[in-house]
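User: Hello, can you help with two protein structures?

Assistant: Certainly.
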Amino acid sequence: MTDIVTFGETMLRLSPPRGERLERTSELGVRAGGAESNVAVAAARLGCESTWISKLPDSALGRRIVSELRSHGVRTDVAWDDSEAARCGTYYLEHGGEPRGTNVIYDRTDASVTTATPEELPAGALDDAEVFYTSGITPALSATLAETTETLLRAAQETGATTAFDLNYRGKLWRPPEAGERYESLFPYVDVLVAAERDAATCLGREGDPVEVANGLLRDFDFETVVLTRGENGSVAVRGGEVYEQEVYDAETFDPIGTGDAFVGGFLARRLDGGDVPDALAYGAATASLKRTIDGDLAVLTPEEVEAVVDREAGGISR
């Protein structure tokens, strides 16, 4: 049985050396990055059998992504696009300190994944999954992907998998009212909701005390578990009438990209390993803190490193 299957876009991330500007650099580092594959990698690094499904151009760029994900132990089930219009989404990341800040430029319009339908994705990919995960980025990419996301979530539930969904709102992809409407249309097929506190407020109009927000979402949409992430204020989870809170574990931030995905990967991996919700929150927080010390989108770490952080910071768990 596969522990976790994820579905979504993975792009190539192109970055100049730190301190250089995109408009002047003669060198770009290349890495793979995408919310759902980031989660798959984090879970795989923590001992889960992880599979990422998607659609990629049948080209060197598509193979580059598959090669990198497989190197971290992730199985890839890909629909290969050999059409003339096939393309791989990319994004350019220019690291910058204050006051300039980090800049991201996307070039992902009409990427092959935006045309992915359930019929062309590998048959049976969800049949033996314990958890199916996707994020709100995926339905934002095209009307086709919105329909495919709903179909896969529904199919995963029907096979008995636990379905997990992270709002992961991106203002560069759609506006809050459109995003909120689409999210709510998917909620009947979601068991575990992960939401950044700011996304719940922006897209769902859920503001106020975080425990009340999480409990309101759980009650109104009949989720099994709701996890509300709160940036430097940690996270809150509600399940079965219980409330759990988790502090952030301090980290020296080298690259924050992918921190939220690392949290989700750590949380789901611990749940799959039999951990309860507070244990999973601690593992999510530790995985996220370690990710911040690593360049690139991926949480390239070991279970021993995560356990060391959890053990050192055991006082951060509250029930």
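That covers the first. Now for the second protein you mentioned:
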Amino acid sequence: MWVQPPDERAWPFWHAWADKTVYAVSGPGEQTLPWLPAEVRLILRSKDTGGRLLTVHATVHEIDPADETWGPATEALKAARLNAADDALDRWARECTVRAFRPFGTPLEAPGSYPTTSGAAPVPPSDATTATWRPWHWRGRPRRRRGNRLPDDG
């Protein structure tokens, strides 16, 4: 699933469903999510093909450990979390943010009503580059990687 704040790029995130609500945890040792306003778009993707299935509006609510929904939300998240540590719930309460996303209204995009644009977002700025540096290879780069189509000498 992806979350898209207004006028910003979409962010992928792992999540858990429970009681028609999507729960997500972010923070140290977990996934990174930006600050989210009270209303966002959720983009649901196919587990089989990775293709976009639905885009819906959703409300966002941060869940505090004192909330009555904290227990069900964190239990659903811990069950969905691969390799969850034994102290995950305590760490989430101390250091992380748990959010509840509740979809509402009719889907903005659904099968049969996708836009014709690509939906591609610009690449976020980064200092990472490999434009000028090429890794050193023992006995040079293989011929098939040097720009010609000759087979390797083997």
